[in-house]
Structure formats: structure tokens, C-alpha cells
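User: Could you walk me through two proteins back to back? I'd like the raw sequence and the C-alpha cells for each, with a short line separating them so I can tell where one ends and the next begins.

Assistant: Of course. Protein one, sequence then structure:
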Amino acid sequence: MDEDALAEALRRSLGELVRAVRTVDTMPPGEAAVLGFLDRDGPLTTADLARLRGVTHQSAATSVKDLSAGGLVRGERHPDDGRKLLLHLTDAGRSRLQRERALRAGALGSTIRETFTPDEQRRLGEAVDLLSRLTARLTGH
């Protein structure tokens, strides 16, 4: 298999894996994404979230509104521009995100145990290291 065919097979397989794992989610993907960005990147504006998610400002604002109403996100005036809100993950939001991540990890972990031999699990771990290097190269991190 040449590099382009490998790249396409990898892209397709990873996309299918992500979609399969998301079937256990208990919250809308957009809301989970917002919580994840706030957890990883700290306080952000709605415009920041829209850019990071690759969605419109309106779409990000809808997710933020729903998360705020649920007490998962709180806003405070931006210190550099009082017209903007800086969004923070609340303790309840962090707990909800941890539950979502645990559901995903649990579903994936049990499937890994049921599907792969110990040697295949070791090889899968090596593949994760390779994928992490690939991601770092693509993102510059």
C-alpha cells in the first residue's frame, strides 16, 4: 500500500472509530466539544470556541447558552474587553465531561479487551504512539 492509500485508509478508519465511540455519548457533540476545549485550553470566548470547533459563532453561542443554562459553563467579563464574555468550565461541567470521557474510554476499553489478544493490544499501544507522533507533526505541537 502506498503512502496516499495508507493515508486515506487511516483517515477513513479513524473517522469510523470516532463515530463508533461517540455512540455512547449522553450529550450533544457540540456541547461535549465546548467542554473539552474549555478543559484543555482554559477560559475562552464564544468566538474562540467557534474558531476551534470550525463552526459559526451562532452555533457556538447556542452550545454555550445551553451549557450555561445547565450550570456547566459560566461567563465573566473579559478583562481586556468588557463587551466580551470569557467562558469558564464549572465544577459541574468538569464532572460531566469526566463522565462522558469515562463512558467513551470504558466502551472502547471493553471492546479492545474483547477483540484483541494481549499481543495485539501491545501492538495497538505502539500504534497509538505512532498516531500521536503523526498528530504532533500535523499540528506543529
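----
Protein two, same layout:
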Amino acid sequence: MGFAGRLRKRLAVPLLIIGAGSCAVFATSPARADFRVCNATQNLVGVGIGYRAKAGWITEGWWHIEGSTCKTLIEGPLSSRFYYLYAEDAERGGRWDGPINMCVAEKEFKIAGVNDCVARGFQRAGFQEYDTGEQASWMVQLTDEPATGGAPAAAPAPGTNSQ
């Protein structure tokens, strides 16, 4: 069973949130034009991203991001305004998800299209939408702090354009 499948089987899911921006542990990273995900937890996290390309919708994954580190998912200036993210905690079984359904696979994947996931041999997962406002770079920070009211929280990153 792959990384994503093992995580979906777990029943105890901690309350996890997504925050856009960075914290002190990631503040020393140089500014660059790209889409980065920072893992502010102490656990290994698997991440998938979705976006609209010239040929249509694409989902890609899995990036494995160790605790307290960042990874670049898309290098260079961003070409789309909207990006979609899904992540799973490898150790505690929680996930960062959203209402936008896209396709994922058990192992490394790059999938064209977001319809008929199961019929095409993939799994369906709910991705969270990020409106980058057409900025050249964006950072999402994954945390395990509870959000007020149970809703995902987004916090601005001081001195950046990352919402």
C-alpha cells in the first residue's frame, strides 16, 4: 500500500490547518519566484499540487517534506493565478485538504485531468484552493495548530507578497 493509502486508513485524525506565509524557522530562506510549501510540524508530510496548464488540469505528487523544512513544488515565476494543495501527515495520519476534487495516486504521479479519477485508476482527494493574485511566488505553511472555529487559517508572511 502506498504513502497516501496508508494515511487514509488511519481513523484518528488531528485537527490540522493550512497557513500561507512563513515563520521564524523559515525566515532565513532567500526570496525567489516559485511555489513553496513549508512544513512547520515535526512530522514527515506528503504533498500534492494541482494547477491549470495550457493543455488542461494537472495534479502532481508526492513531495515528501520533512518536519521544519520547505520544498519548492514549482520552480520559477508562477504562470497561473490559482493553485491547489493537498497534504497528508505520514506519522499522525491527518490531512490538509479542501473542497476541490482532483486526482491523486498511491505513488509518485503526474495526472492530466481532474474528472473520472476512480474510473481512470486513480483516487480522488479534496484540494485547497490558493489565489496567488497573479504574484510570481507563493508560500504555503502547513501547521498543526488548531484554527479558531475549525476553519483553515491563513496568515500573512511579514515582508512578502504571499497573502
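The two ends are 37 Å apart (CA to CA).

Let me know if you want the two compared in more detail.
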